[in-house]
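queue> pop job 88
queue> type: inverse folding (structure -> sequence)
queue> payload:
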């Protein structure tokens, strides 16, 4: 059993040794050893500290004390650099794993790269390896199946978003565009892969296509798909599976996205060719197709009025009747969630067609604000957000290409101290949310059904 030592001795040994000279420390060590040996014979052979041992221990304490401030100053930068190196090491591992023999490993690597590109700005790292990543995506699209092709198509779009609009993204897209179009047109290809390609091809064309004729050719590919969902002349809807309907919906949304970069002459031709026929999609059995068709019609009306403020449409009354019916749809055979979502969208679509109005929305990111004040801006924002997801606010802050698309100017540099000072307290945030909830409830109560269920007598 260890001998009992007074607290003052322990304190002197552990806390005051930095202020003692070598001789005093040597004496205290000898006293400690002598007491330890006196308490039991089995420890009598223990030798006391030598002068050399004491001096070494004192120097080690002094050196650690003197280096504390320098470590504190350099620790932040060192930790940040090491974390960045570890992150890049993981990314390199993901890139290498995209050519693994195991399909599960390849898909995991694709998902890892997707998450990294969606949540960070990796331009320098990616630009050095863009051809390697492009080759991996091409291989996964050609030889992969289902989910792997879907992940590869999404990764291709994120790669173009990271590289921005320029020669680098154009080279990537020229390699992948033929593969995208082959998968999209191949009826025997995996339906999930075709759905993903329909979405990715639209945004990649917006970002990386430099020839307006090629844009028009891509739009024709989309037209060949979503026009198959048009209702027949007698009003009957074609029999289409839910997965095929989702493919047509994705094609329509990508087609609408490319409408935002068409010239005035192209828009006039499209309005004459498609605006009347798009009404047939409002009769689709798929709620997502009906919503996509309504938003596309609102977008076309907005673009047409930008060209000609006195734009008139021959089937305007019939169209407004259909939109009003969908905005007040009460059919019992449809799900409540579908009817609620449909009514909310078509109220805005009806206002856009009748009055040219748009329900604006404000997006907050960091210290900045962005207004979604048009159907063109909404379609573009939704397209980017579909791929970037929760990292959209970060890309709005730091991605120069996305900031250029939304006319936000160069990225703003705000230090951490300013960001911390601008944050509101939890109590203030609670009060703000409560007030917003009350205002939202009052606004929505105007559109809610006030009828009460009455039981049978």
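queue> result:
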């Amino acid at each position: 059993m260890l001998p009992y030592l007074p607290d003052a001795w322990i304190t002197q040994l552990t806390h005051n040794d930095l202020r003692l000279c070598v001789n005093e420390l040597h004496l205290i060590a000898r006293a400690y050893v002598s007491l330890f040996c006196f308490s039991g014979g089995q420890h009598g052979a223990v030798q006391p500290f030598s002068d050399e041992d004491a001096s070494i221990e004192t120097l080690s304490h002094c050196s650690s004390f003197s280096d504390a401030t320098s470590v504190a100053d350099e620790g932040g930068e060192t930790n940040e650099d090491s974390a960045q190196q570890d992150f890049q090491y993981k990314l390199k591992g993901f890139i290498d794993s995209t050519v693994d023999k195991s399909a599960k490993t390849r898909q995991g690597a694709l998902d890892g790269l997707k998450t990294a590109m969606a949540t960070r700005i990796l331009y320098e790292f990616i630009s050095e390896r863009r051809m390697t990543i492009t080759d991996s995506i091409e291989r996964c699209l050609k030889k992969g199946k289902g989910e792997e092709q879907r992940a590869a198509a999404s990764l291709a779009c994120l790669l173009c978003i990271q590289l921005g609009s320029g020669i680098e993204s154009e080279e990537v897209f020229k390699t992948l565009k033929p593969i995208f179009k082959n998968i999209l047109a191949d009826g025997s290809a995996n339906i999930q892969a075709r759905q993903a390609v329909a979405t990715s091809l639209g945004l990649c064309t917006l970002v990386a296509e430099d020839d307006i004729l090629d844009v028009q050719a891509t739009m024709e590919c989309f037209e060949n798909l979503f026009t198959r969902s048009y209702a027949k002349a007698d009003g009957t809807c074609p029999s289409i599976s839910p997965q095929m309907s989702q493919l047509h919906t994705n094609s329509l949304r990508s087609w609408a996205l490319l409408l935002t970069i068409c010239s005035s002459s192209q828009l006039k031709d499209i309005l004459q060719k498609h605006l009347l026929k798009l009404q047939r999609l409002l009769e689709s059995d798929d709620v997502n197709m009906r919503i996509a068709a309504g938003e596309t019609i609102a977008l076309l009306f907005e673009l047409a009025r930008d060209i000609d403020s006195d734009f008139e449409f021959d089937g305007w009354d019939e169209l407004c009747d259909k939109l009003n019916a969908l905005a007040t749809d009460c059919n019992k055979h449809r799900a409540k969630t579908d009817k609620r979502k449909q009514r909310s969208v078509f109220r805005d679509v009806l206002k856009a067609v009748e009055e040219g109005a748009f329900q604006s929305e404000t997006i907050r990111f960091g210290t900045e604000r962005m207004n979604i004040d048009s159907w063109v801006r909404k379609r573009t924002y939704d397209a980017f957000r579909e791929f970037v997801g929760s990292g959209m606010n970060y890309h709005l802050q730091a991605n120069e290409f996305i900031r250029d698309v939304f006319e936000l100017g160069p990225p703003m540099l705000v230090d951490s101290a300013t960001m911390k000072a601008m944050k509101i307290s939890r109590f203030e945030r609670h009060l703000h949310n409560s007030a917003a909830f009350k205002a939202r409830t009052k606004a929505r109560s105007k559109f809610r059904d006030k009828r009460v269920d009455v039981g049978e007598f």
